[in-house]
Design goal:
mainly alpha
Length: about 170
C-alpha cells in the first residue's frame, strides 16, 4: 500500500510541475506577442521553447489525469448498478493503458538512445538536441504505466474505492 501512495505522490508532483510549465508557456507566448507587436522585435526562442515545454507538460500530466479518472470516457457497455461489471471493464482499461505505455516506453527509449548516438537536433536556430524532447515519451509513459498498474491494484483492494482521491464516476 505504501508503494501505491508513493506512485500517487509522484504523479501528483509531476502534474504540479506540468501545471507550472503550462503557466510558463502562457508567459512565454505573452512575451512573444509583446515583443513582436509592440516592439516589432520577435524572439528566436519562444516558439521552440514553448513547444518543448508543452510536450513535457502533457506527458508529465497524463498519469495524474488517469489517477483522477479524468480521461475522455466513452461508455459503450452500461455499468450503472453493476459494480462487478464496472470493475472488470475498468481493469481491462487499465491493462490496455499499461500495455500501451510499456510499448511506448520500450520504443521511446530506443528512439532517445538513437538520437543521442546520432547527435540529432532540431532544425531551428536553437538546434536543441532531439533527445531532450523525445525523452518526455519514455518518462511520461513510464509514469502512466506505473499509475495504471497502481489503479488496477487499488481497484481490487478490499475497502479501496475507485471514487477515492477525488476521482469522478463515469
Amino acid at each position: 500500500m505504501r508503494m501505491l501512495s508513493r506512485i500517487d505522490r509522484i504523479s501528483a508532483l509531476a502534474a504540479r510541475l506540468a501545471a507550472w510549465m503550462f503557466f510558463a508557456i502562457g508567459l512565454m507566448v505573452t512575451w512573444e506577442v509583446i515583443t513582436r507587436k509592440v516592439f516589432n522585435s520577435p524572439t528566436i526562442w519562444v516558439d521552440e521553447v514553448a513547444r518543448f515545454t508543452q510536450v513535457w507538460a502533457v506527458y508529465l500530466a497524463a498519469a495524474h489525469v488517469l489517477k483522477r479518472r479524468e480521461l475522455i470516457l466513452v461508455e459503450i457497455i452500461p455499468v450503472e448498478g453493476r459494480p462487478t461489471r464496472r470493475r472488470l471493464l475498468e481493469s481491462l482499461t487499465f491493462v490496455i493503458v499499461a500495455v500501451f505505455s510499456a510499448v511506448s516506453v520500450w520504443y521511446g527509449t530506443a528512439i532517445v538512445i538513437e538520437s543521442i548516438q546520432l547527435g540529432r537536433h532540431t532544425s531551428t536556430m536553437l538546434a536543441v538536441p532531439k533527445w531532450m524532447t523525445e525523452s518526455a515519451i519514455p518518462i511520461g509513459f513510464g509514469l502512466l504505466f506505473l499509475q495504471a498498474v497502481t489503479e488496477l491494484v487499488k481497484l481490487w483492494l478490499p475497502g479501496a474505492s475507485p471514487q477515492q482521491d477525488g476521482a469522478r464516476s463515469g
